[in-house]
Amino acid sequence: MEKTFLMVKPDGVQRNLIGEITGRFERKGFKLAGAKLMSISEELAQEHYGEHKEKPFFGELVEFITSGPVFAMVWEGEDVIAAARQMMGATKPSDAAPGTIRGDFGMIVGKNVIHGSDSKESAEREISLFFNEGELVDYQKDSLAWVYE
Ligand code: DAT
Ligand code: MG
């Protein structure tokens, strides 16, 4: 099954949105494979957002993501990478559709509540950046018989 890396950003943690956000993925039918509340070091932030290091907002992005704890998660399911991106909504909350996480809870691009991997490659990279193998749990979830054929 496909896996993706999702993270409630510091603004989402401070605004009590961990439960709301995890609940959406849980209710949809995805399976939680790992989760932890953690602080992101400067080094991890720079590595995670490496693709943006030449962008003018890189400094602020690193400062923001290290400004408080994040809730890091790995979710599993059919097409979970693309589906989670849809459930998150557009990067800029004012472009994000109502019903999406950023559409419902975000106001500005610099505080857009959630991160999600955008491809298979970034999902693999980000999962291994944030989680050790031993932190991911492989288990049977019986309710999935009522989610899939
Ligand atoms: P996404 O988080 O939707 O994958 P991204 O990878 O393009 O978006 O950018 C990573 C984060 O950087 C994004 O969630 C918020 C911030 N960001 C993106 N574009 C920005 C901009 N023009 N000004 C300020 N911050 C920006
Ligand atoms: Mg991105």
UniProtKB/TrEMBL annotation:
Keyword Ion transport attached: no
Keywords: ATP-binding, Cytoplasm, Kinase, Magnesium, Metal-binding, Nucleotide metabolism, Nucleotide-binding, Phosphoprotein, Transferase
The protein's role, per its UniProt record: Major role in the synthesis of nucleoside triphosphates other than ATP. The ATP gamma phosphate is transferred to the NDP beta phosphate via a ping-pong mechanism, using a phosphorylated active-site intermediate.
Organism: Halobacillus kuroshimensis
Location of the protein in the cell: Cytoplasm
Enzyme Commission numbers on file: 2.7.4.6
Family affiliation: Belongs to the NDK family.
Quaternary structure and interacting proteins, as annotated: Homotetramer.
Protein known as: Nucleoside diphosphate kinase
Name of the encoding gene: ndk
Cofactor: Mg(2+)
Alphabetized HAMAP family for the sequence: NDP_kinase
